[in-house]
Amino acid sequence: MIRLAAEARPSEPRQTAAGFTLVELLVGLTLFALLSALMFGGFRIGVRAWEAGGERINDVSRVELAQNLLRRQLSEASLPQAAADQDEFAASAFRGAGDALSFLAPLPAHSLVGGLYVFSLAEAPNAGRAYLRLGWKIFRPENLVPGGLGDEEEALLLDDIASLDLAYYGRIGPDRPPTWTESWSGALGLPQLIRLRVRFPAGDPRQWPDLVVAPRLYAPPAE
Fold first, then answer.
1. d(Cα 190, Cα 66) in Å, to the nearest integer?
2. Quick check: is 219 in a domain?
3. pLDDT (average), residues 81-100
4. pLDDT 10s digits, 121-145
5. Which residue has the higher pLDDT, 159 or 85?
6. Does residue 112 have a pLDDT over 50?
7. Which of 28, 94, 112, 164 lies in the 20 to 30 Å Cα band around 47?
8. Residue 181 is part of which domain span?
9. Which of the two residues, 185 and 128, has the higher pLDDT score?
10. Nearest partner of 106 among 77, 83, 68, 144, judged by Cα
């Protein structure tokens, strides 16, 4: 009887296994693909923004480093005694023009190299553009010749500039007040102030604040 009752009991319905239908699976994959695309796009935009910010920081750093180097070297400009005693030699020891400058100064103290060097600062062409270059060579009287220093070492301070403008402040005559001029000769002694302006091409975000340097060894010309 018990067996018959068990056999007569109606069978319970089987529960189907939990899962997703094909439509639900396709919808889920589509949403995942859209989210992945949005996340990847945002990441790429973030990386590009970071790279652009890094380039701007690097450009700003290069301008700051160039200004610090030039400020240090120009403040150390000097005229040797031999130059002070000979007008022709003095004129070559410091030659300032509106777009170029050569002067005597020691190397930075951290270089551990003594003696005077001839430095030349100028705008130089580079593949249709211009860059700011600084050249240097150990000081010898024969190096003080117009037209460059020959086989000097050089460094590219700033790439892709529009122009370099230099000006000099001091007395250009014993009876004349100090004034700004676009050229200077060592025969007048060292100028009281040297001003450097670098202009960049239109649209370039870099900025060059006016750099005005007073040579520490400035001495008025002998009257």
1. 22
2. no
3. 70
4. 999 887 778 999 998 888 776 555 5
5. 159
6. no
7. 28
8. 57-213
9. 185
10. 77
Of the candidates 115, 112, 120, the residue with the CA atom closest to the CA atom of residue 138: 115
d(CA 164, CA 175): 31
Residue 17 lies in a domain: no
Q: What's the residue count for the chain?
A: 223
Residue 18 or 112, more confident? 18
Query: Can you read off the two tokens belonging to residue 70?
Result: 């030039």
Which residue's entry shows tokens 């439509």?
23
* Residue 129 is assigned to a structural domain of this protein: yes
Number of domains in the chain: 1
pLDDT of residue 148: 47
Q: Is there a domain that residue 5 lies in?
A: no
d(CA 217, CA 223): 18
Q: Which amino acid is at 202?
A: A
